[in-house]
Amino acid sequence: MNDVHAAPATRGKILIDDVVKVYDPGGAAVMAVDHCNLEIEAGEICMIVGPSGCGKTTLLNAIAGFHDITSGRILMDGETLCSAEKPKAAPGPDRIVVFQNGALFPWRTNLENVIFGPVMQGKLTVADARDKGRAMMADAGLAGVEHNFPGEVSSGMRRRVEIVRALMNEPNVLLLDEPYRALDSLTKSVMHESLLEIYYKNRVTIFFITHDLEEAIFLGHRVAIMTTRPCRPKKVLTVDIPHPRDYGVLTSKRFRELIEETSEAVHEEARKAFDAGEKEG
Ligand SMILES: Nc1ncnc2c1ncn2[C@@H]1O[C@H](COP(=O)(O)OP(=O)(O)O)[C@@H](O)[C@H]1O
Ligand SMILES: [Mg+2]
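Above: inputs. Below: predicted complex with magnesium ion.
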């Protein structure tokens, strides 16, 4: 990993070891994740691509500690987050989820949203949090909208505010579940560059779910293409395009080659999911 701004991350290595998740094991038994193995390096951007309903969010929820697992284990930096003995990880500010539909408080200004976590947890005084929040917002291209409410800025800006809010907690891992799904493609392209700029200044591990292969290859160090439900990696691609990246990458020969190498695997799983009538969970 080529560092341009910040020191490499030393925390946030995630090991997903033989994880199985069956919903309602006593009843209808929906197997969402099946013997899934994946290792994500500290500071890596690992993209998870798979069809709707395959079990991506289930996996993210297990890492975040929102749901238990049925068997296997998940470790962070060698410490067990969850396992057979303790099937549900404890949620914590070391692993922060950025939700698909956004979760900013509409009645707080952007800056108030950004400082909320560390102030609530007593990690920073309001004054220190404001200083840090302002600096991080400026770094993320959000200078000037600190005192606006989320509803007063563009959706692209709101997404950035959310990422800054998450990073204010100094997490080891950012968990993103299709964060740009609702955005139009032009806004999305700006968001991708902006996410990378923020990432270059704040190295964290990023676990990023999408079903957009171009998004996955543009952003990721690696792309895990998941099988249709129950999910596990079908193919893990290392994106050998150096960081820092900008939108020029999209028209490069290597980018197109990587899309070609992987699109068949993605399409095959999407087809299976479609034929099985999978709906997103
Ligand atoms: N709480 C739940 N109870 C039962 N089944 C669920 C629950 N959450 C998700 N599922 C099922 O598990 C499968 C995987 O869901 P999910 O992980 O949300 O998929 P994805 O995020 O890849 O679209 C789907 O078939 C979904 O219906
Ligand atoms: Mg999902």
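The first helix runs from residue 56 to 64.
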